[in-house]
Amino acid sequence: MKKKSVVTVGFFDGVHIGHKRLIEKVITEGKNKNLETVLLTFDRPPQPVSGLLSIFEERLELLKNFSLDKIEIIHFDKNFSKISPENFF
After folding, report:
1. pLDDT at residue 62 in the model
2. Is residue 23 within 8 Å of 8, Cβ to Cβ?
3. Do residues 27 and 37 lie in contact, with contact meaning Cβ atoms separated by under 8 Å?
4. Residue 3 carries which DSSP code?
């Protein structure tokens, strides 16, 4: 049987205090309920942005500092952007 998960989804540019609190909440819920903790992020922002706070590799290193079970990276392109919310999960 596959273990159930608690998941957060976002681009997480800069990994600021709001991101940290959200990720810590996921980790706490996962531990309290014996769930796998998963963070889904994207290799590029959903919309063009000038002046990103961190490049992809830096962002990934910042995210790896958390005690998450998994970090999944989704390639964000035009086809992915057309997936409906219902079909995403």
Report:
1. 92
2. yes
3. yes
4. P
pLDDT digits (tens, 9 = 90+) for 14-68: 889 999 999 999 999 999 999 999 999 988 877 767 777 888 899 999 999 999 9
User: What are the tokens at 29?
Assistant: 């819920």
- CB neighbourhood size of 30 (10 A): 21
Q: How far is CA 72 from the centre of its chain?
A: 7
Q: Does domain 5-88 have CATH number 3.90.1150.10?
A: no
Which pLDDT score, from 0 to 100, does residue 6 have?
98
- Rounded to the nearest 5°, which phi and psi values hold at 9? -125, 135
Q: How far apart are CA 52 and CA 28, in angstroms?
A: 29
Identify the pLDDT of residue 1. Answer: 60
Q: How far apart are CA 29 and CA 33, in angstroms?
A: 6
- Structural domain boundaries in the chain: 5-88
Q: Is residue 62 within 8 Å of 54, Cβ to Cβ?
A: yes
